[in-house]
Amino acid sequence: MPESQSKMIQKLFIANRGEIACRTIRTCWELGIRAVVGYSDSDALSYHVKIADEAVHLGPSPAKLSYMDIGKVLDAARKTGCEAVFPGYGFLSENPDFARACRDAGLIFIGPGSEVIARMGDKIATKKALADAGVPIIPGLPKVTSADQIVKFGNHVGWPVIIKAVAGGGGRGMHRVDSADQAKSALERAVSIAEKLFGNGEVYVEKYIRGARHIEFQFIADAYGRVIHLGDRECSIQRRHQKLVEEAPSSLLDERLRNEMGEVVVKAAKEIGYVTAGTLEFLVAPDLRYYAIEVNPRIQVEHTVTEMIVGLDIIRMMIRMAVGTPLRLRQEEIRISSHAIQCRVNAEDPKNDFAPSYGTVTYLRQVSGPFVRADSGIYQGCEVPPYYDSLVSKICSVGKDRPTAIERMRRALSEFTVWGIKTTIPLLKKIMAHPDFVAGRFDTDFIDDHLAELLNYVEDEDEILRISRFIAEITALGKNPYSR
Which CATH class is domain 139-207? Predict the structure, then answer.
């Protein structure tokens, strides 16, 4: 009997779009669950709408009028007879009011409880909870309101320091301060951006760890106090604190340190009272001391590399946890004998300060072949709208070891072709070929330190863009661009 028939969920509303919606739809199919999605005006012909079992119009293209409108999302879920809601990442995924509203409406929210989301969304409260659980945290100063506070803190712990938004997440709203004379302008900028992005201008300051690696642990917790971790992920290849390349496991950790950090993660999740999938993120200093920085109470973009090396569907596990299925896996059953790498393909122009690139995808050749996974939200002829996150596809490769996974990623990137928009593919190719990346000699400043050479790729993309736009214009006129 299919798992879904033995549980209450027959129909699931996916409160998201793009690649994560498409990826979740496929898990629903495997479980025998009907998948329902919402869509905005600009997403009427998007891929997640095309493949879902049902689709409901939510409203205008701006996210706050459609995907982030709690009333519209709940109304769509109820009208289509859904019993549960899965938020994915971004949008409403870390909104405690949404989780609470789902449950008040009699819908199963596939994620942590609203109380846990609220606590984890407040970075200061998160740090206190982690410290209370015995997890090492970075020296910091909560609730900063003046530049003088930053200067005193920087002089005490050493420069640089970093300003973060209390309500922030996903690397947004961070500002590095290298010296006392930058404190005032950096604070003003940080508060302004925090208010704009999160509706909350409260910020705090932390010691900036030079040469740090960004390493996170995926964990799973059920409603009966059982918690396991699924290993670590390396997320150090970033631009503006936004991850571009992830891999699992990290090449930095040895078995002793990996086990020690994993035990810390499991203990913290239990003490926080966490249920379902989550991620505890760390910075690891060059001396291998590690410091927790945040808990992500949702599925992560990079969950795919963990799935590749442990052979588990994390979203499937989340659905099962949400209906009370106990966690039957034991920690010793989690075996990692391979290496996986993920590259994020964003609709951005790296040579134009990573400016968003949107328009019609006039030609698309997707990745295929052995030991490669592609999670995509685009198709040939689709529109990439300007209203949402720039991520359009994720490519994963897996191999018996890191060099093999890198080789397969190079092959995958050389095959993946997108015309009509600029993407990060050329930059990702350069990263995969860089000797420091190949040797595992990198930290969170890798892209900033090597940006000039990483951007030194052939500008054949411009010619492709011009040709593809010409083809699109002629095709729109009903003419064959290849006829004489």
Answer: alpha beta
